[in-house]
C-alpha cells in the first residue's frame, strides 16, 4: 500500500468511533498532565536542592571568613607573646650575669660595697643619698 491509497479511507462517525477518539484524547490529555506535574515536581526538587546547597555554601564561607579573622588575630597575639618571651629570656640571661646584676643593684637600689662612699652630683636624677 502506498500513502495515496490511505487517503481513500474514510472514518466512521458513529458513537463507538467518537468514544474511542475521545478516550484517545483523554488519555493524551492525562499523559500530558502527568508529564507536566512530573516536570514541575522535578524542577521544584532541583530548586530546593539549589537553595539548600547555596545556603550551605554562603554559611560556610561566612564561617571560613570568621575563622580566618580569628587565626589572624591569634597569630598577632602569638607574635606579641613570642617577643615578650624573648625579652624575658634576655632579662633572665642578664640577671645571671654578675656584672649586670651589680650594676642593676647599684642603680636601682643604691647598693654599695662595704667601705664605699657614694657622692651625689647635681646632674644626678637619683634620690638624695643622705636622706636614707
Give an overview of the whole structure.
This protein is mainly alpha-helical. It has one domain. The chain is built from 3 helices and no strands. The longest helix has 82 residues. The radius of gyration is 49 Å and the shape is rod-shaped.
N-to-C order of helices and strands: HHH
Largest sheet: none
Spatial separation of the terminal alpha carbons = 137 Å
Radius of gyration equals 49 Å
**Nearest-integer average pLDDT:** 85
Structural class: mainly alpha
Share in helix: over 70%
Strand content: under 5%
What is the strand tally?
0
Global geometry: rod-shaped
Low-confidence stretches: 128-132
Whole-number tally of structural domains: 1
Number of helices: 3
Which helices and strands occur, and which strands form pairs?
Blueprint: H1 3-6, H2 15-96, H3 98-109
Descriptive labels:
3 helices, single chain, 0% strand, 132 residues, 74% helix, disordered C terminus, mainly alpha
